């Protein structure tokens, strides 16, 4: 699933399409995508994992789910979910994704302060929302898009390793300093992810995600296919990542070579 930094990269790559008129619309979306024909694209935006195309009176929300992808001025050898053919010969194709229409202004639909890579990101708001969920696992809290819009499973695993917190720690048990580190590092790592992704070196910087040994102390990493309410893959080090709060979970599976993401 593309995480927030990847959507920012797409937003920047597609930004020049704003102001262009849609001359033709293709795709197998079940939505009424033909309403986009002869409309002028007013803006290209992102919120977390949502890619947003703004038109007069409404916007198109694209969520890339688990296997979605996109192409600008080229096509894949499979049917597109939505293809927008703009004036000037520009084309935007998106694949294997969810396409939805949003009525009205985007400001009415989105809380921009929750977007970890946005200019309106508010860490104080994130801390307040976390404190309202004292029993939540930190692994689930990081994936809560109402708190950390754009954070996905890779960022989750890497952030928790960076701040030395076990994924099954409870939010309410974290010291204030650790809670602040959790919030701050979610944003910091997202921008690191963005830079590495643009340079095509992201996977080279993984410390624990899909790895077998902790690079900090050499301990075999613990791995679970499904952890927390989110039921997402988790990789962590029992030596350097401290568990805060009561442990109510099962014993982790032994470390082993994980499947490719």
UniProtKB/TrEMBL annotation:
Top-rank taxon: Bacteria
Reactions that this protein is recorded to catalyse: Hydrolysis of DNA containing ring-opened 7-methylguanine residues, releasing 2,6-diamino-4-hydroxy-5-(N-methyl)formamidopyrimidine
One GO term of the biological process aspect: base-excision repair
Pfam families named among the record's database cross-references: Fapy_DNA_glyco (PF01149), H2TH (PF06831)
InterPro entries, A to Z: FPG_cat, FPG_N, H2TH_FPG, Ribosomal_uS13-like_H2TH
Keyword set, alphabetical order: DNA damage, DNA repair, DNA-binding, Endonuclease, Glycosidase, Hydrolase, Lyase, Multifunctional enzyme, Nuclease
Record flagged with keyword Lyase: yes
Location of the Formamidopyrimidine-DNA glycosylase catalytic domain: 2-93
GO-annotated molecular function: damaged DNA binding; DNA-(apurinic or apyrimidinic site) endonuclease activity; lyase activity; oxidized purine nucleobase lesion DNA N-glycosylase activity; zinc ion binding
Recorded family membership: Belongs to the FPG family.
The protein, known as: Endonuclease
Taxonomic source organism: Luteimonas deserti
Lineage: Bacteria, Pseudomonadati, Pseudomonadota, Gammaproteobacteria, Lysobacterales
């Amino acid at each position: 699933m593309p995480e927030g930094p990847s959507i920012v990269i797409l937003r920047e790559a597609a930004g020049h399409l704003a102001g262009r008129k849609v001359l033709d619309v293709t795709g197998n979306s079940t939505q009424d995508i033909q309403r986009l024909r002869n409309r002028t694209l007013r803006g290209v935006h992102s919120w977390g994992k949502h890619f947003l195309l703004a038109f007069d009176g409404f916007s198109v929300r694209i969520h890339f789910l688990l296997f979605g992808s996109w192409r600008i001025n080229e096509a894949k050898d499979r049917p597109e979910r939505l293809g927008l053919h703009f004036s000037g010969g520009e084309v935007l194709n998106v694949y294997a994704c969810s396409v939805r229409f949003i009525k009205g202004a985007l400001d009415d639909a989105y809380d921009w302060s929750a977007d970890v890579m946005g200019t309106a990101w508010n860490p104080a708001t994130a801390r307040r929302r976390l404190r309202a969920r004292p029993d939540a696992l930190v692994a689930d809290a990081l994936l809560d898009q109402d708190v950390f819009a754009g954070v996905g499973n890779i960022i989750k695993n890497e952030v928790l390793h960076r701040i030395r917190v076990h994924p099954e720690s409870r939010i309410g048990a974290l010291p204030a300093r650790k809670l602040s580190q959790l919030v701050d590092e979610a944003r910091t790592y997202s921008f690191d992810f963005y830079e590495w992704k643009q340079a095509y070196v992201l996977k080279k910087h993984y410390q624990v995600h899909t790895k077998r040994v902790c690079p900090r102390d050499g301990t075999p990493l613990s791995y679970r296919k499904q952890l927390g309410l989110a039921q997402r893959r988790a990789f962590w080090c029992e030596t350097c990542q401290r568990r805060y709060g009561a442990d109510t979970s099962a014993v982790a599976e032994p470390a082993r070579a994980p499947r490719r993401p």
